Q: What sequence folds into this?
């Protein structure tokens, strides 16, 4: 009997062995790729251990308590001082408001001149009558008028004056005093005539002191400037009656 070789017998076996051999070499290469050799540059750096916490001693705590008490005492002393300063300031302000002297108030109540006589003799040769009220607005403060004089002017020209209107007069708190008198004529040129209605001006100058519970202030020079418009009949016009005068000190 003749035997026949089938194609692919030994060759196929050889081929199969070749494939088997090829598969074994590939597996060895895969195993080699799975091993990684460590490199010195890739290793993590060595970190120092965290520092140990120092435990606070009793001496340290005592020092902190002492500092805290000192700070609190300083704040307390400052708060007490500021509180006392505020109280003293408020009391001083209240006393200043209650004891602060106010200026006296002057009002022209009446003023008159004889227009016919003024036209005949001249304005400088005719006396002028006036009535003024002086008000002390202070609650607990009196006013001592050591002296007072009054002058009357027309167009800034002196018409007459009275030197001793008041002398050593004590005006009590919340008091109103009426001052009425006649200003004598200054005398002079009879050609000085008035254009009616005529604008006159009364000027009061007084030396005064404020009296507070038996204590007298220093002497002040008071000025009161009172405009007065007289009509054709020589009397004070209604819009100027009881008009408040401007008062100032020098």
A:
């Amino acid at each position: 009997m003749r035997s026949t070789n089938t194609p692919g017998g030994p060759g196929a076996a050889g081929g199969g062995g070749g494939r088997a051999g090829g598969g074994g070499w590939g597996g060895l290469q895969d195993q080699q790729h799975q091993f990684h050799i460590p490199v010195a540059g890739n290793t993590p750096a060595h970190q120092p251990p965290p520092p140990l916490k120092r435990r606070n001693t009793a001496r340290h705590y005592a020092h902190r308590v002492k500092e805290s008490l000192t700070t609190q005492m300083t704040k307390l002393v400052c708060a007490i001082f500021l509180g006392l300063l505020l109280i003293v300031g408020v009391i001083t302000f209240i006393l200043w408001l209650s004891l602060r002297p106010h200026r006296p108030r002057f009002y022209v109540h009446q003023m008159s001149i004889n227009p016919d006589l003024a036209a005949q003799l001249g304005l400088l040769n005719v006396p002028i009558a006036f009535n003024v009220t002086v008000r002390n607005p202070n609650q607990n403060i009196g006013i001592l008028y050591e002296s007072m004089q009054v002058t009357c002017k027309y167009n800034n020209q002196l018409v007459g004056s009275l030197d001793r209107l008041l002398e050593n007069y004590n005006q009590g708190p919340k008091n109103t005093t009426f001052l009425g008198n006649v200003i004598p004529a200054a005398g002079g040129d009879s050609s000085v005539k008035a254009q009616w209605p005529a604008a006159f001006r009364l000027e009061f100058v007084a030396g005064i002191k404020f009296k507070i519970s038996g204590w007298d202030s220093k002497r002040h020079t008071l000025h009161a400037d009172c405009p007065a418009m007289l009509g054709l009949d020589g009397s004070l016009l209604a819009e100027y009656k009881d008009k408040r005068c401007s008062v100032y000190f020098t």
